[in-house]
Amino acid sequence: MRYALGVEYDGSDFRGWQNLGEGGPSVQASLEQALSSVADASLQVVCAGRTDAGVHGQCQVVHFDTDVVRDPRAWMLGTTTRLPRSIAVRWCVPVADDFHARFSARARRYRYRLLNREVRPALDRQTLSWERRALDETLMHAAGQALLGENDFSAFRSVQCQALHARRELQSLQVSRQGEVIEVAVQGNAFLHHMVRNIVGSLILVGSGEKPVEWIAELLAGRDRTVAGPTAPPQGLVFLGPLYPDNWHLPAEVTL
């Protein structure tokens, strides 16, 4: 039997999603340990998209296979009680055997939030980045529109990225402000390692007036990571979750 889970986590205390053995605590290892305890058997999960150290997940989707019979509610609640308080299983749905958390997804969504004021945050410091320079979110939004569509995102790709190529389709990019908080919301078919944080780091230079709006388009065309902006800190980034066709009958928050 194959099940899909929606998983929420605060990534502050983890080395990232992926289980790297002796590399430190991971969300994946914690989840697999809790699921295995409920099943009384070893279980492994496959996720929709890996997140880096310090990055959070609002609705990461995973799947796992098991012959152990448990009610979906038992998988959800039993696993959550065995997890650290920074991780929770939000829902569990039985799915067809050909469902794949990664390959069945048609889009992925991220949100980056930063506090734009002179003083660093005290509250919400684990989920907010910070920029003391005054930023113009309208310039950031205008610059980001140059990235829409299918493009080679080499200029926004980490040197550690293991993807076979840098072509991705960015479907939407919105920059908005609510008081002192600027939010960058992006959706694409898939993302490269550090791609969202690298885009945000470059948009910050536009918002501060250090670079013109046209610079983002120039970076994209030049495909040179070394001349782009710095990688924005992980704290402000949340993986909102993937999106799937409705034939998989998953909850509305992850359905197209």
Report on the structure:
The structure is a single chain. By secondary structure, this protein is an alpha+beta fold. The chain is 20% helix and 29% strand. The protein is built from 5 helices and 10 strands; from the N terminus they run βαββαβββαβββααβ. The chain has helices at residues 27-39, 72-81, 137-144, 195-207, 215-222, and strands at 2-9, 46-47, 56-65, 87-95, 107-116, 129-131, 149-152, 167-178, 181-188, 237-243. Strands 1, 2, 3, 4, 5, 6, 7, 8, 9 and 10 form a 10-stranded mixed beta sheet that branches. Strand 2 and strand 3 (56-65) form a beta hairpin. Helix 3 (137-144) packs across helix 4 (195-207). The radius of gyration is 19 Å and the shape is globular. 39% of the residues are buried.
The succession of helices and strands, N to C, reads: EHEEHEEEHEEEHHE
Give helix % range.
10-25%
Largest sheet: 10 strands, mixed
Strand content: 25-35%
Task: Map the helices and strands.
Elements: E1 2-9, H1 27-39, E2 46-47, E3 56-65, H2 72-81, E4 87-95, E5 107-116, E6 129-131, H3 137-144, E7 149-152, E8 167-178, E9 181-188, H4 195-207, H5 215-222, E10 237-243
Parallel strand pairs: 3-10, 5-6
Antiparallel strand pairs: 1-3, 1-4, 2-3, 5-9, 5-10, 7-8, 8-9
Helix pairs in contact: 1-2, 3-4
